[in-house]
DNA sequence: GTCTATATACTGATAGAC
DNA sequence: GTCTATCAGTATATAGAC
């Protein structure tokens, strides 16, 4: 049991799970599912390929684990309770600041792209996540509308589609040219004309 | 020489190049560079893998050929001379109507995503294309601004970043749910508040 | 220009020792 | 829980006949 529990914070060693998730993130994010190799991930996690498959019995299951690990982190980053209305939308547009930020963004971009194929191993997951995000943003707009922060002629579903698309596209631009992109600012500027606040 | 020239329109047979480009489009668009196999592409084009490599000496060169073939078609679709100002932007937001439309969109999405990695075989091409599109849209906004169609407080570089990102993101949404997406309409709605036209 | 055959390398996954 | 060894499959690319 001792090996399963999380180590004291500040300790040098990471749990096996942490090591594997980080290695999986690094490899899947830069090569996608198709381009990634279990041997590469295993080596980065400090164990053999067979050792890796002991923890996650297939490449697909490993990717699923990395994705749900990512989802957990993303949820936790939003805070508890998560923000509401326009606050949530601005929060989603903030780039994470950790050193692994780029990897998380890249993982999202590449898995989303690969996941558009119906025969992708985690196609269903990608589809559902896309719908879930869209729905979450739509609800946020509806809360904002109920609070009178949104101009009454704005359709919440449309606004959600536009903002989510914008974030996805700006993420890509940020990956290509981190210095030339301004994710948070551009989202804010796109949003502005829809708001009731005078500015 | 006879085999090189394009066949009479309406003829059943396609040139080898056409066959290979179409097969490459189909496979690369659904699996990306990493997930595609030359054998698969060759089989769809109706020849052996070695036969395919006679025309394009490596997988990378084949992808390059498919991408520049795609670029040619995209350019030609814009018309000659290409539209200007806001017309160009609205034109870019129109989905192509051919049966292979989905494949072209998917190729763009997956190659862009894979291409964010610095060690991707055609990373340089993807990067340059991204910059080229952004620049083209920025110029279009500047022409529109010069024609007085744009509100004077709109920054053209910002508008270009936002519109390009929006198109990329809406493309992705269209791939996931073709019925629920409205690429052309959403671009128009996002653009509207920036225009001088009263509506 | 197209083929078969092959070289060489790597893939995901399994078996079994420790 | 981790390893070595291995299997069967597939990959890209090349050689050489036709």
Characterise this structure.
Two copies of one chain form a homodimer. With 199 residues, the first copy, chain A, is an all-alpha fold. Chain A has two domains: 10-65, Orthogonal Bundle (Arc Repressor Mutant, subunit A), CATH 1.10.10.60; 81-199, Tetracycline Repressor, domain 2, CATH 1.10.357. The first copy, chain A, has nine helices and no strands. Chain A has helices at 16-35, 38-45, 49-55, 59-78, 85-93, 101-114, 123-146, 156-176, 183-191. In chain A, helix 6 (101-114) packs across helix 8. In chain A, 36% of the residues are buried. Chain A binds a DNA duplex (18 and 18 nucleotides) through helix 3.
CATH architectural grouping of the largest domain in chain A: Orthogonal Bundle
Mean pLDDT across all residues of chain A, rounded? 93
Q: Report the β-strand fraction of chain A as a percent range.
A: under 5%
Question: Could you say which overall geometry of chain A the principal axes of the C-alpha atoms support?
Answer: elongated
- Residue stretches of chain A low in confidence (pLDDT < 50, at least 5 long) are 1-11
SSE order of chain A? HHHHHHHHH
Return the structural class of chain A.
mainly alpha
**Total discrete domains of chain A:** 2
How many distinct beta strands of chain A? 0
N/C terminus separation of chain A: 58 Å
CATH fold category name of the largest domain in chain A: Tetracycline Repressor, domain 2
Q: What Rg of chain A is obtained from the alpha carbons, in whole angstroms? A: 19 Å
What portion of residues of chain A is helical? 55-70%
Please outline the major beta sheet of chain A: none
Number of helices of chain A: 9
CATH class category name of the largest domain in chain A = Mainly Alpha
Largest interface: A-B, 42 and 42 residues
């Amino acid at each position: 049991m001792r090996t399963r529990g999380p180590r004291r914070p500040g300790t040098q060693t990471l749990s096996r799970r942490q090591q594997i998730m980080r290695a999986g993130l690094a490899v899947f994010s830069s090569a996608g599912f198709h381009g990634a190799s279990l041997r590469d991930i295993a080596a980065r996690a400090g164990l053999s390929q067979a050792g890796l498959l002991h923890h996650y019995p297939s490449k697909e299951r490993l990717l699923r684990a990395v994705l749900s690990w990512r989802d957990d982190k993303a949820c936790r980053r939003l805070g508890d309770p998560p923000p509401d209305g326009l606050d949530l939308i601005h929060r989603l547009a903030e780039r994470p600041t950790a050193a692994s930020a780029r990897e998380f963004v890249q993982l999202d971009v590449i898995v989303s792209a690969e996941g558009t194929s119906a025969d992708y191993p985690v196609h269903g997951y990608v589809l559902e996540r896309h719908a879930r995000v869209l729905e979450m943003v739509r609800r946020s707009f509806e809360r904002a509308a109920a609070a009178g922060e949104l101009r009454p002629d704005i359709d919440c579903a449309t606004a959600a589609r536009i903002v989510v698309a914008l974030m996805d596209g700006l993420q890509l631009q940020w990956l290509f040219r981190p210095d030339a992109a301004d994710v948070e600012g551009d989202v804010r500027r796109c949003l502005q004309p829809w708001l009731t606040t005078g500015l």
